[in-house]
Each structure stands twice: as C-alpha cells, then as structure tokens.
Amino acid sequence: MSGSGEISEPSTTDITEPETVATGVPAVITTMRRSIDQMGTTKTARTLLKVNQPKGFDCPGCAWPEPPPDDRKHAEFCENGAKAIAEEATAARADRSFFAEHRVSELRTKSDFWLGRAGRLTEPMVKPAGADHFEPIGWDRAFELVASELRGLANPDEAVFYTSGRASNEAAYVYQLFARAYGTNNLPDCSNMCHEPTSVALAESIGIGKGTVRLDDLYEADVIIVAGQNPGTNHPRMLNALELAKRNGAEIIAINPLPEAGLLRFKNPQTVRGIVGRGTEIADIHLPIQLGADQALFQLWNHWILGDHRGGRRVLDEDFVASHTSGFDELAAHLAAVDPDALVQATGLDIADLTAAYDMIVSADKVIVCWAMGITQHLNAVDTIREIVNFALLGGQIGKPGAGLCPVRGHSNVQGDRTMGVWEHADPGFIDRLDAEFGLRFPREDGFDTVETIGAFRDGRARVFVGLGGNFTRATPDTDVTEAAFADAALVMNIATKLNRTHLVTEGVSVILPCLGRTEIDRQDGADHFITVEDSMGLVHASTGVLDPPSDAARSEVAILTGLAHELFGPGHEIDWPSLGADYDAIRRHISNTIDGFEDFNQRVREPGGFELPNGPRDSRTFTTDDGSAHFASTAYIAPSLAVDELMLQTTRSHDQYNTTIYGHDDRYRGISGDRHVIMLNEADISRLGHRSGDRVDLVSTIGGVERRVSSFQIVAYPTPVGTAVAYYPETNNLIPLDHHEPTSHTPASKSVPIRIHPSS
Ligand SMILES: Nc1nc2c(c(=O)[nH]1)N[C@H]1C(S)=C(S)[C@@H](COP(=O)(O)OP(=O)(O)OC[C@H]3O[C@@H](n4cnc5c(=O)[nH]c(N)nc54)[C@H](O)[C@@H]3O)O[C@H]1N2
Ligand SMILES: Nc1nc2c(c(=O)[nH]1)N[C@H]1C(S)=C(S)[C@@H](COP(=O)(O)OP(=O)(O)OC[C@H]3O[C@@H](n4cnc5c(=O)[nH]c(N)nc54)[C@H](O)[C@@H]3O)O[C@H]1N2
Ligand SMILES: [Mo]
Fold it and tell me: Which of the chain's ends, N or C, has fewer CB atoms near its CB within 10 Å?
C-alpha cells in the first residue's frame, strides 16, 4: 500500500460532555480497531502480545516502567501504546512513488496528520538545494553527500545533532560519540523542551537529575501527589499502579487545572472487573490550580509545615533535616517571611481544599510527588521543582520505601539518552573517560541546546542539522521564526521512521534516511540484534523487535550512524565504527567502561527484567552535591501579571496524538472530536469577553511587543479555571516566542502563554 492523498481532514468540531472515566471498554475497542485498520488482524495479535514482555520489545509509547517479569499481565500495554505501535507497524508506505507524486511545496501545505498517514519511509531520499522533489539516493551516496557537507563546514560547531527520546541506548551512545569525534557538543535533545527543569533542579539539590522512587514505592505510599500530569492519556499504565496503590490504602491528590479523566476515575482494562465495573475513584482530592501556581502551593504548604506543632511535635522531620540537608536556616527565615494569603490567592484554590490536602499529607508517613509537563513547561519551572524538593526534604521523604520524588518522563528512552551522554553540556568527568577510552581529545566547550540551536540557525551560526528521530521544527516554539531559520540551512538530515514537517523546511539539501522502529527485527549479516532502554525509574532492559522491517532498504539507527561515521572519518580512525555497527555488544562494552552503573552491562542486561541503575538518594540517602547533603532552596514566587483581556494559555496533548504525530482527531476524554483548532475557555471568561461557545477566533500573543497569531480556533466551553485557556500543541506553537523560556534550563514556557482572543476575520 503506497501512502496516498486519500486522507480527509476534518473541518468541524464535535463537542460532548467531557468524560470522567478513563479506559475500560471504549479504550480496548479503540485500540483493537485502530491497530487492525493499520496493521491487519494477524499482525495485530502477534504484535500486541509482545509489547513489554521479557522476550519482546519495549513499548515505544511512554517511559512508565513495567512491573517485574513474573508480575506482568499478558497484556502489558495500553490504548495509547497500541496506537503508537500501530502508527509504526502501519502497512502504508511513503515510498519513491509517493515522493514522485507529491512536490515538497505541496507537502508543506499538509497537516501533521496527513503526513503521518503517508506511512513508513522505505529508502534514502534526497531533495537537492532549491529543488521541489525528493528523489531516491543510495545509502553510500547519501553518506558521501552528508560527509562532504560536514567536512566543508568552517567549524564543527556549525553542525547540530538533535535527538528525540526514542533512540536506544546504543544508538544514543554512538551518536554522541560521532558528534564529539567530529568536534562539537551541539547535542540538543527533546528533554530541553520537556524535563530539563527537573534535571537542573534535582541535580543541584539532590546530586542526581533523576527521580528517587521505584514502582514498588507507589504500592507502599500513604499519599501520592500527581501534579501537572495527565496519565490517563500520556502514561495510561501508571493508572494501573495508582489503582493498586489505592487498593493498598494510598490516598491520591491530583493537582491539575483540568478535571482530567483517569485522575478522577479509572477502569482497568487488564482486569475483568475493570471492564464491567464502575472503576476506581483515583483522586481523593482534586486541586484545580491556576497555571504556573504550583510553586505558590508548595511554598504555602512548606510555610505551614514549619509552623506546625501537632501534639507537641513538629511535623518537620528534624532528624532528616539535621543529618542530610543544608540551607535549612535560610529557608526557614525565607518561609517565615512569605505572605500566606498571597500564596493562597495565587493558586486560585479554596482554602478548605488546600487545608484538607495539607492535613492528608502531614498525617501520612510516606509521600510521593509525581510530576510532568504541567510543572516543567513554565517560566518558574525550576523554582517550582526546587520548592517540591524542599517539601520532600522537610518531610524526610527521600530515601525511604514508599516515599520520594517521581518525575514521570515522556519518550520511552529519553532518560536513557541523557544517561548515554546526549547532552549539550560537556561533563568534564565523562569527557575525560571518553578521551581515555578512545584515545582522542573530545571537545570541552558546551554546545547548543534546543532554543540556542534555533537562534544559531536564524543568525547563520549553524548550517547543518542532523536529527536522530523527532520533529524538531514542529516540536519547538515560535514556528514561523523557526521555519524561517531552517529555510536557510545548508543541509537538514533526518534519521526517521516517518515523514514529518522538519524534513520539508529547508530550501537547502534535505536528506531522509529511513530507519527501523523499536518493534522491528534488527538483522544484519544473518545475526539479530537487540537494543536496550532505561525507563523513568532507572531500570535498564533489553528490547527485541519482532516485526519485519518496513522495507529491505531500511537500516537500524546504529547501522546508519556507524555507516555515516565510517564515511566521514575514513578507515584507520581511532574508533572502529564498522565493528560497533556489526556488534552491539562492542558498543555496550564501551558504555560499561565510560558510564557509571553499567559495569558488566552485557551480562546483566541479558537477565530477565534487566537491572537497576544505582541512585544514591534513593538507595542510601547519599547526596553527591558539593557538600554531600541535599540542598534546600529559597525561591521567590512572582505572580504573573495579565491585562484584563488576557488569558493564560497552556498548550497540551489530546488523547489522540503522540507529540507531533497526530493519530486521529478524537480527544475522547475531553469530549472534543473533529478539527483540533479549538480553544477551551471557562464559561465565565467566554461571556466576560463577549463571545459565545462555537465562535471562531484568532489567538494572539504579544509577549515582548511582537504580535504572533494563529487563526480560526473554535471556542469550546470547558471546566478550566477562570483566566486560563487550553489548546493543542503543536498547532499553537507559533504563539510562543523563542525567548519565552525558563531562565536556567531554557525549557520553553509552553504552558504559560499570555494570549488575547480576537474574532476571526
Ligand atoms: N499518548 C501519548 N503519550 C505520551 C505523549 C503523547 O503525546 N501522547 N507524549 C510523551 C511525552 S514526550 C511526554 S513529556 C509526556 C507528557 O505527559 P503530560 O505531562 O501528562 O502531558 P500534557 O498533555 O502536556 O499534560 C500536562 C498536564 O498538566 C496539566 N497542567 C498544565 N499546566 C499546569 C500547571 O501549571 N499546574 C499543574 N498542576 N498542572 C498543569 C494539564 O492540565 C495536563 O493535564 O507524555 C508522553 N506520553
Ligand atoms: N507547545 C508545546 N510544545 C511542545 C510540548 C508541549 O507540551 N507544548 N512538548 C514538548 C515535549 S515534552 C517534547 S518531548 C517534544 C517532542 O519533540 P520530538 O521528540 O522532536 O517530537 P516527536 O513528535 O515525538 O517526533 C516524532 C517523529 O519521530 C520520528 N520517529 C518516531 N519513532 C522513531 C524511531 O524509532 N527512530 C527514529 N529515528 N525516528 C523515529 C518520526 O519521524 C516522527 O515523525 O515536543 C515539545 N514541544
Ligand atoms: Mo516530552
């Protein structure tokens, strides 16, 4: 089946009441129907039975961990994991006839949904500079072309090497080695737009940029706080864990402006009870907070904790604070001086609800805080996470069973890619180890992150873009600025499973190299390879594809990278690229030698279920900060100021997309289907601003005095707090200026965007 133009785009939107129950029968039906549509019946059954099983592949959906092998249900997947797999296992092909039929100028007018429906890429394609068609190019010629472009740059820092979080550990390690051997640390990744504030805040406060809980901790917790996360859509298997936690007696507090289905009630499709029953009430308390006000909320709770002497005892864990932390006196003085009324007001929450949640927390021994993009994509994200860490430290909630910090990562191997050294910062210890391992001198200067990359292309300081997966120009903010910056690139090369807009943006040369997906058999010279990944809780395990590759020509990411490296560096290079491509154990040996926690990698990863990376705070309350203790941070909450006719917009995911991959047009749990161009507003704001539900409006941002606009969005009345608005990403990315980001991590503040609405002309 050749991908074709028979795809119809919806132009109207259907609205029904939002659902409060997640999963259950409708989810299972959606799963099966969608995968059967794209894959056919036998392939569907064969594929879905291998998801997240010890001898199968790691689901390419999210980074939520799997239970230990003997606990796994036969179906260890969810509706949205199945969509991710069906998207990859589709029978449609964006092959040479597809590219012959569609000009680049035509493809640029198509939606993300349409481009994805074209199907899997089958062979290397090139669009010469100034041309309007992609044409086939052999692998060797493609490598020669890219290598010669890289050799021709005045300076290696004119090339940028981006990674999306699906790349395996092996591919990621080879990739960073390639970029650094070439001479640059320009290694931005999707984390820069995602959990970077988490990595920054946790590294400085607890000495490691990762969370401190295992899956089992959730089952033992007394209270689990789920802040800024929509697990029913984005981490559906987390609901299984929350359900079990609840059965074991945990209470759950959801902090979220929206009443997301699944946080409020959940039916487990993996049990019969789940299918027929009413489901479990997941959240005991829902706090519908104002956007970006979580810093104020945790600061308020921390202020209360310090003054709380219940039954003559302080709620504060004085022993933990005395033996494991520093900066307490400063924090205590700082918190004593905050104005609690102003903090309450900033949250927009009812004092009774705030107090009820607080009482629940301080009556508990073991508390876990989970968070995702609702916390990280704000101007104050790093400060918010510092305040969450303060909260955990004051309660002594780190390094004991059933308690801790639980950032929930997005892409299935985004955490592993960073562990493998995909990072624009040149960590001196790691670079020294690379030097020793490979007998080269690798660069020491920090490279560009995601936002800096766009600035560099805009200003002509970067000329070549290489993408290991992802959809860079669509996922990033300031769409018009970003696309204009990339139009002038000399070369854009993407290693990809499917066609997307980033492949189409440059007027220069564009090269698309088709790779295997996680689900596919990686066979070279008769031998099958497996790869490894690290989940959100630091478990490393193997993943083996089971499906046939999309074409004979598609290659593994590792094979593509080592092939290109061999062409660029030539035979006799200090790094034996061909042998790394032929034997992934050889890559894993280098990983063992250069990355902590990977000793005996090849042996340990062959154990069922893999192995766990060491984690000082979690395992032994060891904090590898400058003074060996966990750091409190004193943060000042600054409330955003909006003009009377402004609303604070969050850009978010529907139930039917994976980032820039749009599976369909049905945001089922929110009761919205059809056209994705909707703006969800509180009823009170709609009438206050003189509009009605169903009106078409333009969304306009004027941050920094520059007008940015997206046109013709339909107003939908929705239970979002007064003054806030919700719309889908990536359609609204054009509203977010490049420099509208958190100051330390540079993560775009894509969930605090002040906008106005104007009637559409
Ligand atoms: N099916 C599917 N799965 C995915 C993805 C996908 O696109 N589709 N993407 C993957 C990736 S890369 C990631 S990073 C994760 C994303 O997973 P999530 O973080 O769940 O993603 P979002 O859809 O951005 O949802 C953000 C949630 O935070 C809430 N929120 C927004 N602002 C605030 C705030 O200021 N405070 C609080 N307390 N809450 C707020 C929103 O209402 C929403 O419920 O999911 C991963 N898994
Ligand atoms: N406004 C706004 N912007 C956001 C966000 C938001 O909430 N709001 N979220 C941000 C977040 S959290 C993230 S993580 C980024 C996501 O940014 P990216 O990770 O760059 O985007 P994706 O849409 O996940 O990338 C999808 C593409 O990856 C390729 N692909 C899929 N599987 C594979 C594979 O196995 N190998 C290879 N080589 N390629 C593959 C396909 O070509 C597909 O088109 O977006 C960020 N942007
Ligand atoms: Mo993400």
Answer: C
